[in-house]
Design goal:
By secondary structure, this protein is mainly β. Helices cover about 10% and strands about 35% of the residues. The protein has one domain: Trefoil (Trefoil (Acidic Fibroblast Growth Factor, subunit A)), CATH 2.80.10.50. It contains one helix and twelve strands. Keywords: Signal.
Length: about 180
C-alpha cells in the first residue's frame, strides 16, 4: 500500500513539472482582444461593413426563434450588450441589457444564433472568444463550434460561419 501511494505521489510531481510547458489547447491560449474588455460593462457591437448597423435583438421577445440581426442603431435596450467573463476559458457570455437572464447562443445546427435563457442547455456554445481582428476590430468566435459571428446585411439575421476574418466578421465594441 505504501509503495502505491508513493508511486502516485511521484507521478503527480512529475505531471506538475511537465505542466510548465506552453499551452497547447485552444481554451488555454490567451485571447489578446479579451484584455481590453471589462466584464459587466455595456457595449454596442457595431458591424464593420454596415457602419450604423449593430448587433440587435427584439427587446420584447426572447425565445428560440428570435434571431439577432444587424439593426440600425437607435439606442434601444435590445442593442446594448453586457459582457460576462468566463475566466477559465478567456471567453465571454454576451447578454442583451433588455433581458440579462438571456445570453447569445450558438444553435446546435452550427449556423443560426439565438438568445435564450442562460440556464437552458448548459455548455460552451454560449461562450465567445473575442479575438483581435486588426485595425481596432474584434472577431467574435464561438468556443464550442469554432465559428464566428457574421453579418449578412442590415435588418438581416446574423449567422455563425467558418472564421475567415473577412469584414463581415469584424465588430467594434463601443463602450456606452
Amino acid at each position: 500500500m505504501e509503495k502505491q501511494i508513493l508511486i502516485l505521489f511521484l507521478g503527480l510531481a512529475l505531471c506538475s513539472a511537465a505542466d510548465d510547458k506552453p499551452a497547447t489547447t485552444a481554451s488555454d491560449i490567451p485571447r489578446p482582444a479579451a484584455e481590453k474588455f471589462i466584464s459587466f460593462d455595456v457595449y454596442k457591437i457595431e458591424s464593420r461593413p454596415y457602419p450604423d448597423g449593430v448587433l440587435s435583438v427584439n427587446a420584447g421577445v426572447a425565445n428560440l426563434t428570435d434571431v439577432p440581426t444587424v439593426g440600425v442603431w437607435g439606442d434601444g435596450a435590445g442593442q446594448k450588450w453586457r459582457l460576462e467573463s468566463a475566466m477559465l476559458y478567456h471567453a465571454f457570455q454576451l447578454r442583451p441589457t433588455s433581458y440579462e437572464s438571456f445570453v447569445l447562443e450558438q444553435d446546435e445546427t452550427n449556423t443560426f444564433l439565438k438568445w435564450v435563457a442562460s440556464f437552458t442547455r448548459l455548455g460552451q456554445h454560449k461562450l465567445w472568444y473575442l479575438n483581435d481582428a486588426g485595425n481596432g476590430y474584434t472577431q467574435v468566435k464561438n468556443k464550442e463550434y469554432d465559428t464566428c459571428l457574421t453579418a449578412t446585411g442590415v435588418d438581416k439575421p446574423i449567422i455563425s460561419a467558418p472564421c475567415t476574418n473577412s469584414p463581415d466578421q469584424q465588430w467594434s465594441f463601443i463602450k456606452l
